[in-house]
């Protein structure tokens, strides 16, 4: 490894600060001595860094350690629930959502504002997104909470190195610099603004909330008006060489079918997206569709069965290509799971070549349509956790 | 990292032996002192290990080092072209191939034996494969070459942890333990027998022969009677959670189409495989197809164009999912490249959502149908390079 510049004291402190914070996050209740033992840092260094993190409001130090056995008891360190929060923002086709999440992962506030963003100009939608961000920041201020990072989820292709939204077909957007656009409309907090595809953020939220025993290899399918996939392999998001990976909505499932926003025909989302299913079932939207399904109405059930077949065609190819046996239904698909899962599973079993040796599973995300904005907020939190010193210094 | 047992002297020697050999492979012509400087080992240790590797026939030491400047000249070390070879074996649907490759990567011998393996029993094909291996080993012995490892390429799903061939639909094989079957038919050399999917070995061969400036992110499509994909991302083979990844042949490209060996209808290989194209063109096989294409015959050209469209449907989904912009046409597709590439590229440009920001490319593999067996032989060579001490000791 070559470094362009020698690592100075500041670089070392940034690194060690993150190390100490991670040790406290991993085992809340540890003393300074425990942290020194687990990180290999001296007690004096740990004490300096703990003071710095506590001064910045990231950790709290309380009472005596509650553990059995002999020896001196240290005070118990833990992440502060009032520490810096991550702000998640999601600009979806039919809503704008914001979410504030704390260092310990808890969601403090989540707000969804319905709107048909397709019928509005880009400037208008960005104006609304800016307003949503201002309101969320004001809410945080009113609660005495600092915001240490922002994550923005969008239904489109986001170039990872630049954070530029290249295209969001369902919004009709091209080349939008979201951090700059939002910064022009609201006073963003110091710290990075992470922009990412909503399906990828949703898959990360699923990974992070499923706990240490949760699946580490799965495809999270976000069924909304568009359809996106987030691929998690070995506990890591796989987003391709530039961040464009996981594009599932334009998977060709029919040589005919209606014209898609991408210009092609027979794309998965025109035949198995939330609006396509509702239209086929003869109902107005997702809520009405769920009601019709619950009432056992035939057109609704047959529309979902047909969509399950289309989705099975696309997902079987995904599973064959990636050799991942678990599908997590997210977004509106999570609500359709009781009717969607069985025919989908049948389609997958018929087409996934590795299925006999590792049964395919289809589960519903507990987070549903909230997953993307929660993932965006949690990604911002992880950004703070990875470099707490920058937050303290700012 | 926890080790079950303390690392003994033998473990250290194995590690350092590989380190010294890699240093010599990276820069042939180095002296013992150069190797000591680049590895950080003492000159005494390097000398002991160089003697051991030279004694085992893996390296040669010759003449004076050819470099300018003052200072003592050491002798020049390099991999021995007569060092242990890797033996590659490929059991394909319509041939059995063997390949001997040396430590420096050169192919010493490659032999393809045509046969319609679908019409023969598993035992019969295994008998022929055993015979091919015996002949290749005899050839190596006649040339005074030791074989240090074996790689076996098969057109099916190979479970990575066990090396068990779970299913090869085009051969009609199920649960075949190839190392055991081959060992029962021929005296295999000491050392591991690596079994893998032919498309994965072909992709590795493409990666390893394309040099340091070659593509590091590509999908290698092996078009034979079946169709397989080998996915390379960041210079690493991606083969999924169990090694079953890259299954492309059963990608559904039509809701109708002939019944496939997998049981489904409309699978890519039934519509765009080598036999399907030849049948559509009204010719007997690949050679006749290429002749008809070169002569500008319309049925042949239209058959290839149709296959290109099918392949484009499947590959656009692969590229959208993985965000990889390069397709390498391998196997019989390499020979069809002059006629296949343009309509395929047109189909991909129309469907790959990230194409405007990173143009899709379609190139032909220089290795063609030899790629898989060469990749199997090279994998065996890399096994020797990773643990030369075991070869010396055996």
TrEMBL record, chains A, B:
Keyword check for Transferase: yes
InterPro entries referenced in this protein's UniProt entry, alphabetically: ATPase_NBD, HTH_MarR-typ, ROK, WH-like_DNA-bd_sf, WH_DNA-bd_sf
Molecular function terms, GO-annotated: DNA-binding transcription factor activity; kinase activity
Domain HTH marR-type: residue ranges: 17-65
One Pfam family it belongs to: MarR_2
Keyword field: Kinase, Transferase
Family, as annotated: Belongs to the ROK (NagC/XylR) family.
Protein name per Swiss-Prot or TrEMBL: Sugar kinase of the NBD/HSP70 family, may contain an N-terminal HTH domain
């Amino acid at each position: 490894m070559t470094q362009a510049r020698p690592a100075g004291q500041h670089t070392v402190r940034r690194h060690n600060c993150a190390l100490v914070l991670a040790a406290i996050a991993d085992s809340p209740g540890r003393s300074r001595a425990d942290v020194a033992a687990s990180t290999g840092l001296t007690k004096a260094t740990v004490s300096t860094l703990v003071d710095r993190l506590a001064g910045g409001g990231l950790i709290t130090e309380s009472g005596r350690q509650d553990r059995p056995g002999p020896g001196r008891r240290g005070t118990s360190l833990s992440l502060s629930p009032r520490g810096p929060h991550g702000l998640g923002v999601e600009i979806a086709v039919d809503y704008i959502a914001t979410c504030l999440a704390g260092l310990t992962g808890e969601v403090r506030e989540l707000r969804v504002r319905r709107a048909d963003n397709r019928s509005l100009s880009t400037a208008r939608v960005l104006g609304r997104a800016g307003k949503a961000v201002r309101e969320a920041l004001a809410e945080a201020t009113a609660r005495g909470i600092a915001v240490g990072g922002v994550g923005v989820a969008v239904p489109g292709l986001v170039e990872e190195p630049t954070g530029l939204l290249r295209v969001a077909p369902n919004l009709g957007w091209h080349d939008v610099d979201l951090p700059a656009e939002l910064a022009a409309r609201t006073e963003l907090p110091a710290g990075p603004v992470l922009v990412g595809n909503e399906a990828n953020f949703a898959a990360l939220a699923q990974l992070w909330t499923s706990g240490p025993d949760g699946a580490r290899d799965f495809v999270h399918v976000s069924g909304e008006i568009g359809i996106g996939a987030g691929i998690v392999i070995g506990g890591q998001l796989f987003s391709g060489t530039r961040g464009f990976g996981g594009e599932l909505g334009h998977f060709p499932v029919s040589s005919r079918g209606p014209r898609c926003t991408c210009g092609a025909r027979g794309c998965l989302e025109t035949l198995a997206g939330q609006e396509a299913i509702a239209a086929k079932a003869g109902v107005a939207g997702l809520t009405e569709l769920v009601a019709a399904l619950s009432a056992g109405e035939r057109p609704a059930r047959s529309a979902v069965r047909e969509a399950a077949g289309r989705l099975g065609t696309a997902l079987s190819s995904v599973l064959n290509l990636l050799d991942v046996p678990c599908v997590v239904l997210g977004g509106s698909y999570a609500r359709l799971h009781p009717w969607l899962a069985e025919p989908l599973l049948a389609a997958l079993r018929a087409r996934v070549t590795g299925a006999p040796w590792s049964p395919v599973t289809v589960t519903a995300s507990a987070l549903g349509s909230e997953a993307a904005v929660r993932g965006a907020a949690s990604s911002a939190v992880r950004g703070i956790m990875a470099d707490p010193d920058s937050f303290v210094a700012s």
